[in-house]
Design brief:
- The protein is of the alpha+beta class.
- The chain has 5 helices and 6 strands; from the N terminus they run βαβαβαβαββα.
- Strands 1, 4, 5 and 6 form a 4-stranded antiparallel β-sheet that branches. The protein has a two-stranded parallel ribbon with strand order 2-3.
- Strand 2, helix 2 and strand 3 form a beta-alpha-beta unit.
- The longest helix has 13 residues.
- The radius of gyration is 18 Å and the shape is elongated.
- It starts with 8 loop residues before the first strand and ends with a helix.
- The model has no long low-confidence stretch (mean pLDDT 90).
Length: 144
């Protein structure tokens, strides 16, 4: 999710991802067009342990004690369905139809809430992986 600065690596942009907060539709934030991490401070938010680098970003911008980290996806799903606690989501999940009933997904507007993913290989291997890069480019263009 970071563009390598090493010139011996060939990179092609793959996709962007923005995180959202999925929140009960009766919550005041649900009526906003977007929200900042600052506005989320103090909310108890359910979050999956397996969100990778997003966890570091959330901990950097929010009080870690407000993050209700779940180590089991089944437990997270059960908590989301049985409570009105907010949970993180992303535009990629929303595009796949992963909207949560009774909730509104509001984009987080901070710059750190967007990640660009890169497909990379060693520059000398670029020809070897040309078909992969072309397929990814074609897929990305169809889904933007």
């Amino acid at each position: 999710h970071a563009l390598p600065e090493d010139k011996s690596i060939f990179c092609q942009r793959y996709m962007d991802e923005r995180i959202y907060i999925s929140i009960d539709r009766d919550h005041p934030i649900a009526r906003q067009e977007s929200v900042t991490f600052e506005q989320l401070k103090g909310l108890r938010i359910l979050v999956s342990e397996g969100i990778g680098f997003w966890m570091n970003i959330c901990k950097e911008h929010l009080d870690p004690s407000d993050l209700l980290i779940q180590h089991n996806m089944d437990a997270l799903t059960e908590l989301v369905e049985a409570s009105s606690l907010p949970v993180f989501n992303s535009d990629r999940m929303i595009d796949k139809g992963d909207e949560l009933p009774g909730r509104v997904s509001v984009p987080i507007s901070d710059d750190d809430a967007v990640a660009t993913y890169w497909l990379a290989c060693l520059a000398p291997d670029q020809r070897k992986y040309r078909s992969v890069f072309n397929a990814v480019r074609s897929y990305a263009l169809r889904h933007e």
